[in-house]
Amino acid sequence: MAANVMEIYGSKVFNEHVMKERLPSATYKSLKNTLHKGAPLDIEVANVVASVMKRWAMELGATHYTHWFQPLTGITSEKHDGFVSPVGDGTAIMEFSGKELVRGEPDASSFPSGGLRATCEARGYTAWDPTSYAFVKDDVLCIPTAFVSYTGEALDKKTPLLRSMNALSGQAVRILKLFGKDVDYVSTTVGPEQEYFLVKKEDYEARQDLILTGRTLFGAPSAKGQELEEHYFGAIRPTVNEFMKELDDELWALGISAKTKHNEVAPAQHELAPIFAETNRAVDENLLTMEKMKLLASHYGLVCLQHEKPFESINGSGKHNNWSISAGGRNLLDPGENPMENLRFLVFLTGVIQAVDEYQELLRMSAASAGNDHRLGANEAPPAIVSMFLGDELGAIVEALIDDHDYTSAERAAMDLGVDVLPNFIKDNTDRNRTSPFAFTGNKFEFRMPGSAQNLSDVNMVLNTAMAKSLKEFAYQMEGKTGDEFEAAAIDYIKRTLRDHERIIFNGDGYSEEWEKEAARRGLANHRTTADALPCLVDQKSIDLFTEFGVLTEDEIRSRYEVKLEKYNKIMNIEIRAMKRLVRRDYLPAINRYAAKLANGITSIENVLPEGDTSFMKDKLEKLVAGAAEINRQLEKLHELHYASLEVADQQKRADMNAHEIIPVMDALRAAVDAMEIIVEREAWPVPTYNEILFYA
Ligand code: ADP
Ligand code: MG
User: Which atom of ligand 1 is nearest to 443's Cα?
Assistant: First the structure.
């Protein structure tokens, strides 16, 4: 396959290369204007694009098309329409017009809208996002689209993301102008690192909890876990290797530059990272990647688990959001090579620090989900506290700015900022702090809170908008100043702002208990659960931010908050019900059966051998009976709380109850069952255990 990678790469994508080759040059030119300058697309142009696109797609075997969009469920949606159109004389033609390309009307009444749209007026419409290329997948031409209501409210994840990219661009363009650079558009780039597990299909099928909830609700730790760290970057098992190869091929054909793949720390865990792309495309590509992973795993008798915490006691899966800002191919989080570039870098860096501190709660909120709650703060992932790591070198520079002294480094001469040149961070092997939720890694920031199952739109929407706010403030204070006056004012601004937001910078061990205490002293937020993290979305401060930049209206914000809350509560409800049913129908009966068998065994043995020592068997029987009683107690407790929670109409109150009252009981119930798993006879246990699921050939 490798030989024709160049041939297959992008072969199923209607990218700029194809556009240029196939579109009449006038059409291509106006489409390019739309692509790069956001000019509206006129219907004449759309008609030509549609007909060329249709022919191209049909050559690749496409018979249908779909507007491909991301409703608030976070996953992608598609509804296939055939190109075929009967002409009345018994024959048919293949039809696809400009109108159908740029606009679609899915019957969308079943998508969550958080009360934005009454079901009677359910029809929203989808609108083409030409900056994310159309592609052919399984004989369907997929057209990436935004999904909005007739009154213009965003009903999806993409619309506000695009708005936030524009907001950031608008402000960054102002900053670059101050530095004497005229650009039309500044984009943000994202490279998501996708972690996932692969398990055998037969094990998956034997675990109702995995099927229903994506994670194991029960399961004692395997005798061996990840402590030997032999899996990390270890040799990839042959079947998994075959899977990864096919995945690469499929992704490359879709123009997704899958780049690195390796085994992760936990057994059966893997990671795939693509080369970064502009944020909206990166998100689309990540969603496609996740879909392909699930689909292709089945070709190898495997199931791909994308839940944030499929297994307790070993690492869960995250999705690191590598993020930067770029103008005309120039990375603005790259320190650059001369004093003015250094200053510009410091302005953007300061902007990020200010944004992350000021909107730390929103960032935490953007990564909140029922699944991710199991991961954040466990000993594998950043805590629920947002802080930033800058690395030794940059950290020292920022400290020098804050303390107002010159920066000296061991290898470099003293540096008077604005005169000398900042070190080149990319080449520097900055000591990377894996425990930091928001780390500078040479020429980009890596936000490590997001979970593996997440659609990264929300995270980047928050990040971009918060950054737009920082940049706007800087521009506002600097515009009108030039030359030395500008430089002096800029450095002064940077110093002041860094001082104001110093508390967000933390270079130590983010997993430690001391950090939790220290963070509390610094006044940093620590929302441990989704229920605690969500309310900040509807704070006045958040509403002000999003409305100021036209990213979300107050109604859109409130609806999103409702959707997130409801989703959390629905997931909790499913997990509780699954737990109760599994305990009642599988685990308790199995334990009871085994206890009865043991009891009969004891009686038989004593009949034959009255003087034999059966005390150890009786001990075990006692443990089993006591264990079953404990399980039953926790089950009853859970049952009562569950029913009480369903009576709570207020979704936030219900979420609070789930997070703070019910989860501890779920944990206790699980612990009681897991304690039995390790003493019940192997054959008697009703499901495959961690040992079997995680370590397979
Ligand atoms: P790591 O050591 O953290 O794995 P890599 O250099 O391998 O770092 O990058 C990880 C991810 O970051 C990749 O997806 C990569 O494409 C992405 N990345 C690199 N540069 C940028 C950038 N300027 N903007 C966004 N993402 C980037
Ligand atoms: Mg990384």
Answer: 23
